[in-house]
Write a structure and sequence with these properties.
With about 400 residues, the chain is α+β, with helices and mostly antiparallel strands. It folds into four domains: about 80 residues, Elongation Factor Tu (Ef-tu), domain 3 (Beta Barrel); about 150 residues, Threonyl-tRNA Synthetase, Chain A, domain 2 (2-Layer Sandwich); about 35 residues; about 110 residues, Diaminopimelate Epimerase, Chain A, domain 1 (Roll). About 35% of the residues lie in helices and about 30% in strands. The strands form five sheets. It has a six-stranded antiparallel beta barrel with strand order 2-3-7-6-5-8. The protein has a five-stranded mixed beta sheet with strand order 16-17-18-20-19. A hairpin with a 2-residue loop joins strand 14 and strand 15.
């Protein structure tokens, strides 16, 4: 088995070890050492990176107690090699993992939640929790309570202890949940009220986290997923949020506390402006109806054909077609472009014998569009060619 140096000292960033094996795998090399301070991916915590001699460590995994290092160049078997850990990455993972324990402990102690999984990604960390009665959400007040509990432990700088207890001691420990392994059980205790089996790396004291912030709580695969940031990640997030709030406050000539009210007022003004603009566009659109009727070509069946694309939203397009077909002997095939596609409204007067729902459906479906409706009025969407095809069908009626 590989001697794992990080168990005794998570702050160890340089060490020497003997090369036991090295072989090629694809474009990389797998290296086995007699001892290593590199943390392998496990328990939701990602692997450490750094160097072994002149080789860059790209990945670290454990198999049957052996820690395998994936490196970018070969190393000689039997040589002594110096390992260097990427401390910034290690510290970040230590902070996230300790934050996980403290949130999980608070959820268990205050609300009866049982943590079933941790994932530390490059941006946020998440824990999945089985809550009493299958709950998948908690209130904002409960989130705040968990946050305050965790950060109070940080402010008190409670100690974090990691050790391998003897069997008798392990049996008597008040663990938050049962260990998933039966041998070489390593325990992590944070303060006096959080204790659980864990093989990850952790700081010596909670104060080294600085800050923990819960970003969201949401359902995930039938459980409750808590997304959070700890340590430097939380501080960087605070800086981003502070800068964003300051910029928005300056632009709206208000304070941070008044930002919500100012945004609500701005949104109301925007809604009113959009309503006014929509009405103006509709008025301009409807003002064209007499000209559209007057210039519409006559079909062999005797009806007038009004077709084309209008500068309108879907609701205005429906109103336009509804007004057009109030006139006798009218077929209206109108569309409105929306990016690379279009929406369509087809309609016909009551005295015209044509099925608009069938027309739109049969023209749209072969072109990957959708549509259908009543014989006198139909709606749909798809590519611009749908209108061309529909016009050709109607002109042949």
């Amino acid at each position: 088995m590989t001697e794992r140096l990080y168990y005794d000292n998570a702050y160890l960033t340089q060490f020497h070890a003997t090369m036991l094996d090295c072989f090629a795998k694809d474009d990389t090399y797998l290296v086995l050492l007699d001892r290593s301070a590199f943390y392998p991916t496990s328990g939701g915590q990602p692997y450490d990176t750094g160097t072994l001699g002149d080789a860059r460590v790209l990945d670290v995994n454990v198999e049957d107690g052996l820690v395998w290092h994936t490196v970018d160049r070969p190393l000689a078997k039997g040589d002594t090699v110096e390992g260097r850990i990427d401390w910034a990455r290690r510290l970040d993972h230590m902070q996230q993992h300790a934050g996980d324990h403290m949130i999980a402990g608070a959820l268990h102690r205050l609300m009866g939640g049982v943590t079933i999984g941790l994932h530390i990604s490059s941006d946020i960390s998440t824990i999945d929790v089985a809550m009493p009665e299958g709950a998948t959400r908690i209130t904002d007040a409960e989130i705040r309570r968990i946050e305050e509990d965790v950060n109070e432990h940080i402010r008190r700088n409670v100690p974090i202890r990691c050790w391998f207890p003897e069997e008798a001691e392990l049996a008597a420990l008040p663990l938050r949940k049962k260990p998933t392994v039966s041998e070489h059980v390593r325990i992590v205790a944070i303060g006096d009220d959080e204790m659980v089996a864990c093989g990850g790396t952790h700081p010596r004291n909670a104060g080294e986290l600085g800050l923990v912030k819960i970003l969201s709580v949401a359902p995930a695969r039938g459980k409750m997923r808590v997304s959070f940031l700890a340590g430097q990640r939380a501080f960087a997030d605070y800086q981003r949020c502070h800068d964003a709030v300051r910029t928005a406050s300056q632009q709206l000539s208000t304070t941070a506390e008044g930002l919500g009210e100012s945004i609500a007022a701005l949104q109301e003004r925007l809604r009113n402006a959009e309503i006014t603009i929509t009405r103006m566009k509709q008025d301009m659109l409807f003002a064209r109806i007499p000209t559209m009727l007057k210039t519409a070509p006559a079909l062999p069946c005797g009806a007038k054909l009004i077709c084309g694309f209008a500068d309108a939203d879907a609701a205005s397009l429906k109103l336009l077609v509804s007004r057009l077909i109030q006139e006798p002997r009218v077929i209206a095939l109108m569309g409105a472009k929306t990016g690379d596609s279009a929406v369509y409204v087809f309609g016909r007067s009551a005295d015209v014998d044509a099925d608009m729902g069938k027309l739109l459906r049969e023209c749209a479906q072969p072109l990957g569009g959708k549509g259908g409706g009543r014989p006198d009025f139909a709606q749909g969407g798809g590519c611009e060619e749908i209108l061309t095809r529909a016009v050709a069908v109607v002109e042949g009626m």
